[in-house]
TrEMBL record:
Keywords of this entry: DNA-binding, Membrane, Phosphoprotein, Transcription, Transcription regulation, Transmembrane, Transmembrane helix
HTH araC/xylS-type domain: residues covered: 641-740
Superkingdom of this protein's organism: Bacteria
EC number: 2.7.13.3
Post-translational modification 4-aspartylphosphate, affected residues: D529
SMART domains documented for this protein: HisKA, HTH_ARAC, REC
Keyword Membrane among record annotations: yes
EC primary class: transferase
InterPro entries: CheY-like_superfamily, HisK_dim/P_dom, HisK_dim/P_sf, Homeodomain-like_sf, HTH_AraC, Peripla_BP_I, SBP_2_dom, Sig_transdc_resp-reg_receiver
Domain Response regulatory positions: 481-596
Protein name: histidine kinase
Transmembrane segments: 338-361
Length: 740
């Protein structure tokens, strides 16, 4: 047994210990409550109690305190934390939807509880039928009033799904009773104080008798009751609500004591929610839309329900105490088991260490003998390889010097050849050092050998021919800008010589300077090294791809790092291509051509997509089909989508300008112009005009509006100028299209 086997033995023993511990799979569940109240405290406690039936379940609770912004932040924190499932009670229907969709896009299951979301992007919904609750309470009140009377409704938080659905069900039920007048619908926010304020304001302006007040929860209806009683102590108004909580001062006690005539149980059933969550996490079949059953509470059954609730609470407390004891016993057991296992491991390691120490001394003698033999072989290998490299080096430096001395080339060709000669001489120096290596005592522990293929004699003419190829004149002022980022001046110069006939070249010596130039000039392409001072190429690529102004710019990483893991890291940073040094200029040009063709294809796709219009709820577009390699990035798709939405939203505004467009999208006028031009081939002004004309064409074909109406609808201030632009765009007058 060798000493190097010790780590393997430790890993084996650790794996053995872990395997003995059984299946310890754990689940983290985030719970985002829209607010804090007695009803939600009861639900949270039921979640905890329900989780006792499953091993490895950890619950993380968060309350938004009726704040949309806070709940969005909490949900996003759960997503970033990587929880396995999120349970959400949305504060409002639509405002929380983006955060729920974000979690869903990150493949985190989402259970929407109690309140609904404005999107269908969730795993399951569980909650009571709020519309049926409103309908039942409406029918109950109408029956109690024998079909005649005046009723006031106090609604919950504006925009929340329970408030909307309970109101709809309540109003639907009252419509069946013409003798029932809905005297007022007051707006609260689920708190008693909000309902009391709303009722006081209502009573100041309303002088008629109120027969019944329906609050969408018990807290609000009690607040409304306080306002009514303060206004008229002799009032005969009756009250009913929703929730019927069995807690002290809750709805059940209020019904039993006659403060409320009735309340409708709004079930919590946290145990059902945790059961649904575990079905989702363990990939079992489940019901995506589950409605919880409920019932009406009156004075006839309130006392019985209170007794039952007290018994449930007592059993729950007993269960919590039992759970705490079990956890304590399990903790002690696990501690003792680990102590025993570690003692066994230490004993085994001690025996193994004694045996390995004994073998170590004998192994050292053999290794020293083998080291001396390998040392001689390595020295001979270095000497032979050095001589093999020296021959092709001579064939490289001599032809280059000959070409330079002949003096028939252009200035930039001389610069290129001088750079090549200088680097060849540096390589010659390194080879000479290797030849002298035999004079130095070799340290086998501190050196490595990099094996490289020799340059064959038949490749020398090809290299020379490529080096002296004449470059075309400098490009004109309309050439597209290309950014080269490399800390090696010779590499930048060589790339400039290769590419100057096609692009306007700008250069940077490090990633930070390159990022500044990219944001300032918005080039069509960036070629960057990886290993650079200040900011490396990978970080530059990530910054470029993460900035809205530059995310569309293709990036080619040109580097000497050629390991598969390094190539993978480059592509993960957002690179569009990865080319290793030494490189072929022909391969580089071919890759640039491919990228530019793909970008042109994207321009046509985006130009049509950005100017598409919506007709009868369906977006119409003539966008070209793009292949998989040309697929736009998510950030560019989002940018074009936002740009399209802004144009469609402001199209009717004749004073809508590029400055306003840039302000809304978060870019300066110059940045907006260059990015839109790069993505669509159109300037922002052209894009806006084209979108307006496409919308006008759709309105001409699908509506009976006249030309003036359409011109003003799409943002033109002059029908005659609109007709001229329409003719220029489609080759036909608008009036001719209407006749056709």
């Amino acid at each position: 047994m060798k000493a190097s086997h010790l780590p393997s033995l430790i890993i084996f023993l650790a794996a053995l210990l872990l395997s003995c511990s059984g299946d310890n799979r754990t689940f983290e569940i985030g719970v985002s409550q829209c607010s804090e109240d007695i009803w939600r405290d009861k639900f949270n406690q039921e979640l905890r109690t329900g989780s006792y039936g499953y091993d490895g379940v950890t619950l993380h609770f968060a309350s938004a305190d009726d704040s949309d912004t806070r709940q969005i932040e909490q949900i996003n924190r759960f997503v970033n934390r990587g929880v396995d499932l999120i349970i959400v009670a949305p504060n409002q229907t639509n405002t929380i939807t983006p955060a729920i969709e974000n979690a869903y896009r990150h493949h985190i299951p989402v259970i929407v509880y109690d309140r609904k979301s404005g999107s269908n992007h969730y795993s399951a919904y569980i909650g009571a039928d709020n519309r049926e609750i409103g309908r039942q309470m409406g029918n109950y009140i109408a029956t109690r009033l024998q079909g005649r009377g005046r009723v006031v409704e106090v609604m919950g938080l504006r925009g929340s799904s329970p408030a909307i659905e309970r109101h709809e069900g309540f109003a639907e039920a009252l419509r069946a009773y013409p003798g029932i007048e809905l005297a007022g619908t007051l707006q609260g926010d689920w708190t008693g104080a909000s309902a009391e304020r709303a009722m006081r304001r209502f009573l100041k302006r309303e002088k008629g008798k109120i027969d019944f007040v329906f609050g969408q929860n018990d807290r609000m209806v009690m607040g409304a009751r306080d306002a009514v009683m303060a206004h008229d102590l002799q009032s005969t108004t009756r009250f009913c609500g929703v929730d019927a909580l069995p807690t002290h001062g809750g709805g059940l006690e209020q019904v039993r004591d006659g403060l409320l005539e009735a309340s409708y149980i709004y079930p919590t059933h946290g145990d059902k929610v945790i059961e649904l969550a575990m079905k989702i996490l363990t990939h079992q079949p489940y019901e995506r839309e589950k409605k919880l059953k409920s019932a009406l509470v009156t004075r006839e059954n309130a006392n019985v329900l209170l007794l039952q609730a007290e018994e449930v609470v007592r059993q729950s407390d007993d269960l919590n105490r039992l759970h705490d004891k079990i956890n304590d016993y399990l903790s002690r057991y696990n501690t003792q088991r680990w102590i025993l296992m570690m003692a066994v491991v230490i004993l085994i390691l001690l025996v193994a260490a004694i045996f390995m120490t004994y073998r170590y001394y004998y192994e050292r003698i053999r290794i020293n003998e083998e080291r001396e033999r390998m040392q001689d072989q390595q020295l001979n290998f270095f000497t032979n390889v050095s001589h093999e490299i020296r021959t092709p080096l001579t064939l490289i430096t001599d032809p280059i010097n000959h070409i330079v001395n002949r003096g028939h080339l252009k200035d930039h060709d001389f610069d290129t050849l001088r750079s090549t000669a200088r680097n060849a001489n540096e390589l010659m120096t390194l080879v000479s050092d290797i030849l002298d290596f035999k004079k130095i005592e070799f340290d086998t522990a501190g050196n490595r050998i990099d094996r490289q293929e020799n340059i064959s004699d038949e490749n020398v003419p090809e290299i020379t021919e490529t080096a002296i190829r004449e470059a075309d004149p400098s490009p004109d002022d309309n050439s597209e800008t290309l950014l080269i980022v490399d800390d090696n001046a010779d590499i930048r110069h060589y790339l400039r010589v290769v590419l100057h006939n096609r692009f306007h070249i700008i250069e940077a010596a490090n990633g930070q300077e390159g990022l500044r130039l990219a944001r300032e000039h918005i080039p069509v392409l960036i070629i960057s090294d990886i290993m650079m001072p200040v900011m490396n190429g990978l970080e530059l690529c990530q910054q470029v791809k993460g900035d809205t102004a530059t995310s569309h710019i293709p990036v080619i990483l040109l580097t000497a790092k050629s390991e598969d893991s390094q190539v993978a890291e480059g592509y993960k940073s957002g690179a569009d291509s990865y080319i290793t040094k030494p490189f072929s200029s022909a391969v580089l040009m071919a890759r640039i051509d491919n990228i530019m063709q793909s970008r042109e294809q994207l321009r046509r796709h985006y130009a049509n997509l950005s100017t598409s219009v919506v007709a009868d709820g369906v977006e119409t577009s003539t966008a070209v089909r793009i292949d998989d390699q040309s697929q736009p990035s998510v950030r560019d798709q989002e940018f074009i989508g936002r740009l399209h939405d802004i144009i469609q939203r402001h199209m009717i505004e004749s004073e809508f300008s590029v400055e306003v467009m840039g302000s809304e999208i978060g870019l300066s006028r110059v940045q907006l112009y260059r990015k839109v031009k790069a993505l669509t081939g159109l300037s922002p002004v052209e894009l806006l005009r084209k979108s307006r004309l496409n919308k006008a064409d759709q309105l001409l074909r699908s509506t009976g509006m006249n030309i003036s109406e359409i011109a003003y609808t799409v943002g033109f201030t002059s029908p005659s100028y609109f007709s001229k632009c329409f003719k220029d765009e489609f080759g036909i007058q608008p009036v001719e299209l209407m006749r056709g």
